[in-house]
């Protein structure tokens, strides 16, 4: 007896087999490279390529893949910038679209590592097991997804925390000539986050590899490398690598801001992290972008920079924000660095970034060479967040500090032309000189905000005015140690609100007591000469004037 196969059974079997087949259609458009040079490739065709899309180039000589970023979308060709081994790509090599924008690996495994802008480790410590990927270009949160900046980022630098405060989610520009201490301020700010919950990202653009290695060693020595990611596009790297470096750093920072400690998306129940990103420096990124754009035959504008250079930096810096509570209340604080030429802040790139950021810390060469470190010019430096980024007691005691220093600068310049100075002017010169001396800090000698409040309070109440100028820093540091050891309760209470009258009286008493001990151990020697030298003029008792000898 033979089995008969009905047509219905055949149809049912075919349907079952067809249903079990899983087919995905991979739509890739392929073309060839028509021209390549200076890290730029021109590809014919690619009608479906998107702006900012990742392109895959295959070398005909080595067989290896090199990736590029679509930039110019012309009618008959696409202009792309190449990353990686650009020498492998030759005219006639194949290029394919990938259908995805450029992204980099991200995650907590990146902490403590030095990576290039593609997220690949360059510190010789093996591969990075990243758990996520983030696009290098990402739309900044809208107004409704943010909240006002309200928490301070303590740099440990008295001149900044008192007069140019930085808040979590703020964009504060550090600007000045070459070799005025811009990177030093940024590194000190990172080192001061050792005991906080902030993750730090340092983006080095166009610097020597030895400089990046030295910075890594400094961060490791001060115990903050394990919570820091260094993104390095050195001077030896191509212009496209230097161009994407800041955006790669922002993408890494956004991972921590948009996710909680376990990697879950941040919301009200899963608080996002807090990140400090340093872009060192955007002047070199602008030069790299100019080189790229000119090679892509884009029309040059002012100072030969492309017309969209402002948009490039604004897209980058708008990603720094303080998120609303509904989005996890995370924050990304940006410290972009800009290098000026001979103090010219009216150049194209400096004016662009000044207008994008929420304030600037301006470093002056003259102050630096006079020994004022950090060389912050309080006249042009400003924070548009202001007191909202300070603890209440700091806001209370530092309120008149900027005015006092401005008055001192004015009197200092005026006193050079006067033959006799009245008692009020002499007091202001003496008081201002001691204030300026108090603001001096060595590298990696951060002051806790409580010690800053005590120091400014002591200066404001004239406790420093009759101490030798060269003893002011010694007095400030000794006072901080004395208060921490002898009066820790009062010191700790300073950050809980405004100073009460009772707290002020107790502070005055303790400072006066410490001052007696200090003057016994460090008696004044040449206070009058030091003050007169600081004012750049010696005034004798008879009213005659002589030029101060340095």
From TrEMBL:
Localization: Cell membrane; Membrane
Source taxonomy: Bacteria, Bacillati, Actinomycetota, Coriobacteriia, Coriobacteriales
EC number: 7.1.2.2
UniProt domain ATPase F1/V1/A1 complex alpha/beta subunit nucleotide-binding: residue ranges: 156-383
Entry GO MF terms: ADP binding; ATP binding; proton-transporting ATP synthase activity, rotational mechanism
Full protein name: ATP synthase subunit alpha
UniProt feature, compositional bias: Basic and acidic residues: 520-530
Its biological purpose: Produces ATP from ADP in the presence of a proton gradient across the membrane. The alpha chain is a regulatory subunit.
